[in-house]
Write a structure and sequence with these properties.
single chain; 521 residues; alpha+beta; FAD/NAD(P)-binding domain; D-Amino Acid Oxidase, Chain A, domain 2; 3 domains; 9-stranded mixed sheet; 8-stranded mixed sheet; 35% helix; binds flavin-adenine dinucleotide
């Protein structure tokens, strides 16, 4: 077993862990981050993509609301390339409590969350598909944020400041010496080799897996898990984030992200971080609630559904059966204080919008414990980025149209998201190990458009095989297509069903890929 040592080991490559590693690296600490899969594979790649204005929790969770409002301003400055400034609306439909808007507006004003009432004609001029029976409408500073671009920028920031990010490295156990964690046993999932990593501090930033990691350190972590299901409609039905003006509940928001609109969400208590199955009632409910905001939405094409898991801190078993009622604010636990175990900190909950603040508070604690006097600078340090500006289909189209088709030998790999062969080859060349198709999806949006990988999966598989020294395995292709299929199966009616049947024919009849995989297995 090889061994390594560092000051800080961060476990988990979601927004929280990446934010902590970035802050620690900027303060000059020696930091290693391990992620069992790819960055953004957990909750950080499974949410609405809303950059909260704070309005959503103004009445129910003022601490979260205030944090969101201040971080919204900071992220627009340091990560502008990941944000689309859609603006936001809170609207009262005929189904919502009539006394809520005034109470909500006064809470926003107390928390300094900008919110301004606008006329219904101004609202409809901005968003013509909204329900004309909406009685009140308020403008807020919501936006949409691309968490994959954000994660890439954070990795780059960590590496530029001397930090190390190890993907496909899973924590398997801790080595404990009396009341102190001293090392972690980690498996490199690409090679199967083990690594012993000693550190001065171990940070558990594994979101819904936090309880499992704490158990490895022989600690009880009271954590409730809430599954939230989301549905992406196949195009932008709105260009502004639209929230229902009522207490947060199921199906009360539509977020325009890239080329689609995301309807969210449900909140179902679950036992495991991998309990991601979607119930038919969840899809029905999201479409019905969405229809109240956008009459006729039910007749539009749903593109895909998926779920993410919220980890919610639930101290001293208070018998909550529901997770919707638990507070959304983050919690940082120094296990020396809570459990008498030194060198171990767990960071739980919060939002993508507040990842930087969570990281700042965590690294302040790390510096206290290591007796290092270094101030946080993430609020004023722009994240590095390569793609300018925010990713959008029109900018890819514009780039394509600027090219002389006779002079360029480039080819389109994904028609829906306009991914070119040159983009794909660049991503493959830059990867440390050959990425799988799902990694390429997160990098380039391959397979995320209306045909849900009907064509691009095969082309991407063939091109990426050229970059691999081993012979291509159809398992990777099969797993990728299976994941795509899981997300469309609950929506199998109308044109979505037609698309599924078309894709199935390509897979089974045209390419006989199912036959090939049976022969090999
Ligand atoms: C349905 C839903 C909708 C949401 N919508 C929004 C929104 O619109 N806006 C917003 O601001 N926030 C939203 N959030 C919250 C937001 O997604 C999270 O706060 C944010 O992504 C931070 O996640 P994280 O890094 O804590 O956890 P994760 O992203 O889950 O990261 C944890 C990582 O730990 C890794 N890991 C686990 N075990 C191990 C191990 N043994 N070894 C190594 N690595 C391991 C996992 O693979 C995973 O990548 C939403 C959450 C949910 C569930």
């Amino acid at each position: 077993m090889s061994s390594l040592s560092t000051q800080v080991l961060v476990i988990g490559g979601g927004a929280t862990g990446l934010g902590i590693a970035w802050d620690a690296a900027l303060r000059g600490l020696k930091v290693v981050l391990i992620e069992q899969s790819d960055i953004g594979q957990g909750t950080s790649g499974r949410h609405h993509g809303l950059l909260h204005s704070g309005g959503r929790y103004a009445l129910s969770d003022p601490v979260s609301a205030r944090d969101c409002a201040s971080e919204n301003i900071i992220l627009r400055q340091i990560a502008s390339h990941t944000i689309e400034d859609t603006g936001g609306l809170f609207v009262a439909t005929p189904a919502d409590p009539v006394d809520y808007p005034d109470r909500w507006l006064s809470a926003c004003s107390q928390l300094n969350i900008p919110a301004e009432e606008i006329s219904l004609s101004a609202m409809l001029e901005r968003e013509p598909l909204l329900n004309p029976r909406i009685s009140r409408s308020f403008r807020v500073q919501d936006a949409s944020i691309d968490s994959f671009d954000l994660a890439h920028a954070l990795v780059k920031g960590i590496q530029e400041h001397g930090g190390v990010v190890l993907l496909r490295h899973r924590l398997e156990s801790f080595i404990r010496h009396q009341d102190r964690l001293v090392a972690a046993k980690i498996r490199d999932l690409s090679t199967g080799k083990s690594l012993r990593l000693s550190a001065s501090l171990f940070i558990n930033a594994t979101g819904p897996w936090a309880k499992t990691i704490a158990t490895m350190a022989r600690i009880e972590l009271p954590l409730a898990l809430g599954k939230g299901t989301l549905v992406a409609m196949s195009h932008r039905l709105v260009n502004t984030v639209v929230n229902r003006c009522k207490p947060p509940s199921d199906g009360d928001i539509v977020v325009p992200v890239g080329t689609v609109s995301i309807l969210g969400t449900t909140d179902v208590p679950v036992k495991e971080p991998t309990s991601l199955d979607i119930e038919p009632w969840e899809v029905d409910l999201l479409l019905a609630e969405g229809d109240l905001l956008l009459p006729g939405l039910r007749n539009s094409r749903p593109l895909r559904t998926w779920a993410g898991i919220r980890p919610l801190y639930q101290p001293a078993a208070d018998g909550h059966a529901q997770t919707r009622g638990l507070l959304r604010a983050h919690v940082i636990l120094d296990h020396e204080e809570t459990d008498g175990l030194q060198c171990f900190i767990s960071v739980i909950g919060g939002k993508l919008t507040t990842f930087r603040l969570i990281a700042e508070e965590t690294v302040d604690l790390i510096c206290d414990k290591l007796e290092i006097d270094q101030k946080c600078s993430t609020a004023s340090t722009p994240l590095p980025h390569e793609r300018v500006p925010f990713y959008s289909l029109p900018s890819r189209l514009e780039k394509l149209e600027r090219q002389d088709p006779h002079a360029s030998a480039d080819q389109v790999v994904c028609e829906c998201e306009l991914v070119m062969r040159s983009d794909l080859e660049l991503a493959l060349r830059k990867a440390v190990t050959v990425p799988d198709l799902d990694d390429l999806r997160r990098d380039l949006r391959i397979g995320m458009g209306p045909c849900q990988a009907g064509f691009c999966a095969y082309r991407t598989f063939a091109i990426s095989s050229e970059f691999s020294s081993t012979s291509p395995s159809l398992k990777g292709l099969r797993d990728f297509l299976y994941e795509r299929w899981k997300g469309i199966r609950p929506l199998a009616w109308g044109s979505t069903l037609q698309q599924m049947e078309f894709s199935r024919r390509i897979y089974l009849d045209l390419l006989a890929a199912g036959q090939e995989s049976k022969e090999r297995s």
